[in-house]
Amino acid sequence: MWRQHRYKMLFSLLLLLSGLLLAIDTGDAKPGNEFDWLDILGEGTTLLVACGWLGLIISSRPAGRVTEWLYYGSLLLVYSYFLDLLDEFIRYPDHIRLMSWLESLPAPVGMLVLTYGLIGWHREQRAINRQLRGRELFLRDHQLIDPLTQLYGIEYLQAVLQREIELHQSQRKALSLLILDIDNFAAFNRQHGMASGDAYLSQLSELLSNQLRYSDVVCRYAGDRFIALLPNTALPQANIMAQHLRQQLSQLAIEKQQPQLTLVEMAVQQNSAKSALHAADQAMALAKKTATLSLQPI
Description:
Layout: H1 6-26, E1 28-29, H2 37-60, H3 65-86, E2 90-91, H4 98-104, H5 106-141, H6 154-171, E3 175-182, H7 185-192, H8 194-211, E4 217-222, E5 225-231, H9 235-249, E6 261-267, H10 273-295
Helix pairs in contact: 1-3, 2-3, 3-4, 3-5, 7-8
C-alpha cells in the first residue's frame, strides 16, 4: 500500500519541514532551563500517537475518497501537535500570532475531517461485512470449494461476480479482475507427474490467498487458470496490485522446473458475469499472443 501513497508521504514531510522552518524563522530558541519536560513528554506522546494513526492509514488503506478524508484529517492533527511541541523549545514574539493560529486551528478542523472519514470507513466496513456474510451463506448452501486448492470454484465465481457487478453498478464503484494462467501446465504434468502439478497448484493458491486482500475473492476458474475478483478497485489500483503480485510470483519461478505464469488485470465494464468472464478469456488470449510474438526472432 505504501507505493500508492508515496506522494502523500512526501507532502507530509514537506508540510512538517515548512512548519519547522517557519517556527525557526519566527521565534528564538528557549534556554534549556526553561524547558518543561512534563509538557514535552505529554505533547511528544500525543504527536507520536497521531503519527502512528497516519502511518496505519497509509499502510493499510487503498487509495480512495475515504482514505483521503482519513489521511488529511490525521495530517492536520499531526501538524497541529508538531507545532505545539515546537512551542516548548521556541519562544515567539508576542505581537506575532501566526504560530498560535497554526497550532490551534488545524486540530479541530482535523478532528472534523477525520470523523467524516471514520464515518465513511464504517459504512465501507458494513458493506464488506454484508458481502462476506452473503458469501458465507452462499458457500454453506453450495459446496463450491475446489478440493485441491481450497479456493472457490467457477460456479461460485459466476454467482459472486454477477452480484458484485449489480452492486457496483448501483453504487457507481469500480470493479476489477486479475486473471492468472499457468503456461503449458499440461506439459508440466506430463514431464514431472500429476503429484508435482498438484503440489504446485496448492503452493500457488496459497500464495494468491496470502497476497490479496481480505475483501478479494480468489477462484480456480479452470484447471490451469485462476481469477481474483477485486471489489472497489479501479484499474490503476489493480495494476499496482498485479505488479506486486508478479514480484511475489517470481519467487515460485526460482526453481528451474517451475512453469511460467501469465497475469492480466482488467476493469469490469460488462453487465453480466458471463460477458465479463468472456472478456477475461479474451484478455488472457491477447496477452499470450503478444508474449509469443515478442519471443519470435525478427
